Amino acid sequence: MSSEATAGAHAGDHGDGHGDGHGHHGPKWLAHHFDTPAQQFDAAKLGMWVFLAQELLFFSGLFVAYGVYRSWYPEMFKAASHQLDKIMGGTNTIVLLFSSFTAAMAVRSSQLGKQKETGRYLLVTILCAFGFLVIKYFEYQHKFEAGLLPSRYFHPHMDHLVAGSAPLPANTGTFFGIYFMMTGVHGVHVIVGIGVLIWIYLRNQRGDFSKEFFTPVDIAALYWHLVDLVWIYLFPLLYLV
Amino acid sequence: MFLQPVPSDNFQLPPSMADTAPPIDKAYDFIFWFSVVFFVAVNAAMIYFVMKYKRRKGVRPEPTGHFMKLELFWTITPTIFIFFLFHAGFTGYIRNATAAEGATEIRVRAKKWSWEFEYPSGDRAPAELTLELNRPYKMIISSEDVLHSFYIPEFRMKRDAVPGQYSFIQFTPTVAGDAHVFCAEYCGTSHSGMLATVKILPPEQYKEWEKTLGKCTGTPEECKPEKWGETLFVKNGCPTCHGAGGTGDIAGSKSPGPKLVGLFGHQENTTAGPVTADENYIRESILRPNAKIVAGYQTVQMPPFVFKDDQLDAIIAYIKSLK
Amino acid sequence: MAAITTTPGAHHDAEDPNASFLEKKGLMSWLVTLDHKRIGIMYLISVMIAFALGGIFALLVRAELLTQGKTLMDADTYNKMFSLHGVVMVFLFIIPSIPAAMGNIILPIQLGAKDVAFPRLNLLSLYIYWFGACFGLYSMINGGVDTGWTFYTPYSSSDPALGGVGSSTSVIPMTLAAFIMGFSSILTGVNFIATVHKMRAPGLTWRRLTLFTWALYSTSIIQVLATPVLAITLLLLTMERFLGLGIFDPRLGGDPVLFQHFFWFYSHPAVYIMIVPGMGVVSDIIATFSRREPVGYMAIAASSLGLALLGFLVWGHHLFVAGMSEYATMVFSALTFLVAIPSGVKVFNWVATLYKGSISLQSPMLWALSFIFLFTIGGLTGLFLGMLAVDVHLHDTYFVVAHFHYVMVGGTVMGFVGGLHYWWPKFTGKMYDEAPAKAGWFFVFVGFNITFIAQFIMGSRGMPRRYYDYLPEYEIFHQISTVGSWVLGFGFVIILYVLVKSLMSGKPAPRNPWGSAALEFQTPTPPPTFNFVKDPVLTRGQYDYQLATEDELYEGFDDPLFPGIRGGKPAAKPAAAAEGEKE
Predict the structure, then answer these.
(1) Which of A237, B112, C441, C455 could form a disulfide with C402 if both were Cys (CB 3.0 to 4.6 A apart)?
(2) Cβ–Cβ < 8 Å for B173, B133
């Protein structure tokens, strides 16, 4: 809350004449409608947290659908989740966790003003994100081949199923409907995240950030942590439980 | 509504014809008069203040103070009122949700865009629900396609028909006469045509009617197979999709179901190959509409129908007669 | 994402910071503007076009119902007309109307800020809204939808072309339109929350915010927390129709009632997205035109937040006849009644504000007072529907239609048009003619009541909604209602005439035409690009009429930055007295 800080500054500002009541002497990255760097940083951070709350509610619809159908058809969920590849899913979890770590390190080094180091951490994060998508692609490909698709297109090929799996109940398609929606919506978030991180990376290389101004790195990392967090819930719910 | 003088319940509500109606009417009256008093009080005060405190030069508005007691008063008073309102609504609801002992069960099937009622004897009747006066009933409602809602305004009763589920309502008709069945949940093109009649008969008349259930009730002339078939055709809502008289034409445009005039004996291209439209084909198409679909009508919307053999014979005779 | 941060160079394009925000000409200067006021004006034009479109659909629906059977159009066309009326009015008009259009212009000024917290995000929201609207238009050109604005499954999700039993109209573009416009709403909410928290001028404490600001703040919370649930629901619906997920379609193993839970979890709070900003406008108008701080300021502010919170807990009352357990219906009915308390508190406080005020019945005040009149009817008939037993009878009848319109038109539209008159001078720098404006109000008010009182009666007598045809006993009510709709439409034509005439040849508006103490009337009309000529520092509240002099009360307030100039003209008395009185 910066209003206390600025109140004094402006109280003494009255003699300025009205021609240029808006002239402020902040650094170049300070947007004109903010009074102080602190106000700009606080606003951006608050805005991002509110946006993340929105994201959580966006996913909550899917989690509720998951919960409802799981409580109605526990056996079907058990049989269906057996068909998912725990190794690939687990690898992806590690990849994302690691990328979240490097994103946090990028913020840290940006705060310290280490531009090169920030760039390297961002690059690793972006590579991990691509790695995640590649693994996801192979998982999806297998599901398509095995005919494990949402209800209308659900037609499992026995020879593609996991060896020794129990027969799949008739409405297993619903599980895969939920599976593709959850991982698909998450995947879109990963793709958006890659775009954001590349943009931040380019700005970092251009030298936009400094010890004083690292807000974009900070909030991009917040977003990336959310993408990671959602996956941390998706993985056990879909693959393990 | 508040501006209308209310001579009796009947102006605002349809006649009350079942035991479920009076508790709801009581609750309705209570909330109505509550609302009238409240509405008049608030708006009379508003209009009075606007006139009394019209802006005049030299008259200052009173500064706004703090009125803790007043604030508490108009927060707590409505809270008490709404408790009563909730109670009145809830008891009426629970009373109507409780089934009477030994209620007669009737299956209500909703489909686009007709109602079908199945009596305990297994007989099915479309578009007309016949009930005995003062006998408790339980409706078991289901839908064969999309959402519908079974609504009898005279009984103040309504329940959604949800595909894949059963829902229930119960009531005892208390007045003899006719009542309406509406579909209250939007269900597509002919939603507003999805109507039926409730006939509430005194016990003697009901017994008479029961004997004729599933049989032709008209004069011998009306009960010739062709004629009776036509009656069944209309009552079961067939013209909604096949056009009046099976002409395949509704208000100048092609109907959703194929034309039936001239069908009999004609070669039809179907999903199962070419078929000659004979008695067996028509019978199958009524009982299992998806079995052989006429080319050009890939999207089959017709629900399966169930008829007794003599009814089927009559309908087939009617379709045969369409030239 | 990109627009969350602000980059160097924002706003440096403005040459003269004291020129009116309307000064710059040329289409491009509008399309790339970051000025919240210009963005607000573009929203305003868009929502008014949507309102006209939705209104035409409504008139067509009413015209069809003038006689039994076919009057103008066939059943399928009719079903599309009422669906499009609902979709356009809800998603394109009411939800963005007051927050995104008027809030965008007024909120930052009432906060004494130069702009919203994220100007780029603000422009992005507008483009998202337009992008979504394009999908909606595409759907309409492609034949429209006949699902109703509620998109109930399985009718909406089951495509006959893929072997389903539902609607064969172009549902997917329309649900995508609502999905996309949802993000516009979310981002506006995010922006406003950050703006209210972080952009207030020095001295502008939470207790000095206007009630309009409080209302927008509450609305923003709902927008941020409820809209994403609608977004995911519509996405699931789209995918259900397109891919057959098996979540909502019983033929694929899904549950259609689950959709209703999801849908109303958003759409009930959405009703408060629609009405709470209207309440905010009314609070401000009543304070200005009765020259009094609203009675129970904190109670009104808190009740806005209370409505925002309670709105999330009552969605189940839309499903009383859809098959819920008795226990659930009981809980939802009880919670629904709680909504009456904050609504009642607002109404009582507004009426109490009039008591011993100094009331002037100019056209914005007429709209605000008719808001109270119509909203009491809308609110009280809501109690009918909250009572379980009565709801079973009234659910899905015209009674619900009338109730909904009394709240949304009698409430939100009255607030919207009232606000439009109230702030019109600020928006455009022009005054409008008072006499025809009042005539417009009269026709709208009378026409509205004729239209919908008839619907209350036929509804309680059992007429179900969304009916193309009806039984003879309902004909007279339908005819009264249709005639009323013509009177209502005529009223809006007059208002359109008044506003267009004002734009063409209106007199220049003074700084403070109504003599309000609120911050937006202390800055020049129309406001400069950065809203104020000097950064404002608040030394008094925005409703502190008790600090005003006799003259200020009657003729308007002094410009705190330019003593001696009142409403754009030199004051009758020297300003020294007024200065002394103020602090």
Answers:
(1) C455
(2) yes
Q: Which chains touch B (3 or more CB pairs under 8 A)?
A: C
Q: State how far the Cα of A184 lies from the Cα of A189, in Å rounded to an integer.
A: 9
Query: Where does residue B276 rank: exposed (0-12), middle (13-18), buried (19+ CB within 10 A)?
Result: exposed
* Whether B61 and C347 lie within 8 Å, measured CB to CB: no
Structure-token pair, residue A166: 């129990």
pLDDT confidence of residue C289:
92
Q: Which amino acid is at C430?
A: K
pLDDT at C9: 39
CB C163, CB B299: distance < 8 Å = yes
* pTM score: 0.86
Cβ-contact A19, C166 below 8 angstroms: no
Residue A175 structure tokens: 């599980």
CB atoms inside a 10 Å sphere around CB C581 = 13
Helix ranges (H only) for B7-124 are 9-12, 21-52, 68-97
H runs (alpha helix) in C32-118: 36-64, 75-87, 95-96, 104-110
| Contact status of B146 with chain C (Cβ, < 8 Å) | yes
Which of left, alpha, beta for C276 (phi over 0: left; psi -120 to 50: alpha)? alpha
Kindly state whether A212 is in contact with chain C, defined as any CB-CB distance less than 8 angstroms.
Answer: no
Three-state DSSP class for B77? helix
Residues 159-198 (C) with a CB less than 8 A from some CB of A: 162, 186, 189-191, 193-195, 197-198
Q: What is d(CA C532, CA C538) in angstroms, rounded to the nearest whole number?
A: 13
**Residue C3: per-residue pLDDT:** 29
- pLDDT for A18 equals 36
For residue B90, the chain C residues in CB contact (below 8 A) are 330, 333, 388-389
DSSP run (H or E) holding C425: helix C414-428
Low-confidence ranges of chain C (pLDDT < 70): 1-17, 547-583
Per-residue pLDDT tens over the stretch A84-121: 888 899 999 999 999 999 999 999 999 998 889 999 99
DSSP string, A74-107: HHHHHHHHTTS-HHHHHHHHHHHHHHHHHHHHHH
